[in-house]
Specification:
The chain has 191 residues and is an alpha+beta fold. It is built from 2 helices and 9 strands, in the order ααβββββββββ. Strands 1, 2, 3, 4, 5, 6, 7, 8 and 9 form a 9-stranded mixed beta sheet that branches. A hairpin with a 6-residue loop joins β6 and β7. It is globular. It starts with a helix and ends with a strand. The N terminus is likely disordered.
Length: 191
């Protein structure tokens, strides 16, 4: 209960609301793409790939497509600036099995930087949001990252390479270790 309350309070902070707003912009941007847009989503969706291994309450390897959207928000006030990167991994075996890796940063940035980011639900850092979420068909609940890292080794406007290693847990206390690599195709957009 205390962990949930701390997590809730962390997301209620003003800075975290800004990061969440950036994530919402990124998702809205991806959802608004159509064949008539200057950037055709078919040009980048499906061109990336991933492979992750799950151990624990489930033991299996998933492979599939990887894509990303990175949004960069620059305003007149540096306090309101930030970037969010959302990488989505969709299983080839079942398109309803999805992982979402999120890295958000507040500050005057030209996008999320390369580096290794720590997954921590209890983080007190109000300048960074890092997490992983997963929906897996063998479970009826959503998994969230409780520990581990997301490494972003190479970031370009239309391609990101990285890896994930960590622990995800659902509301039923089912725990999975996750490790793997991804090369995601996508877009970076200034807002």
């Amino acid at each position: 209960l205390i962990k949930v309350k701390n997590y809730y309070n962390h997301f209620k902070s003003i800075t975290m609301k800004k990061v969440q707003l950036l994530a919402l912009f990124a998702l809205l941007f991806l959802a608004s793409c159509s064949k008539n847009d200057e950037t055709d989503p078919d040009d980048f969706l499906g061109n990336g790939s991933f492979e992750v291994t799950l151990t624990g309450d489930q033991n299996r390897t998933l492979k599939g497509e990887a894509y990303f959207v990175q949004s960069i928000l620059k305003s007149k006030s540096e306090v309101e600036n930030g970037s969010v990167l959302v990488v989505t991994l969709t299983s080839d075996q079942d398109e309803d099995e999805i992982f979402t890796l999120t890295v958000g940063q507040v500050g005057d940035l030209d996008g999320v930087n390369t580096g290794t980011y720590t997954i921590d639900l209890d983080s007190e850092d109000d300048k960074e949001l890092v997490n992983v979420g997963a929906f897996l068909n063998e479970s009826l609940t959503i998994y969230l990252g409780t520990s581990g890292t997301i490494a972003l080794n190479k970031i370009e406007n239309d391609r990101i390479e990285g890896s994930i290693s960590g622990v995800i847990e659902n509301g039923n206390k089912e725990t999975l270790n996750i490790s793997g690599e991804f090369t995601a195709s996508g877009i970076t957009k200034n807002l």
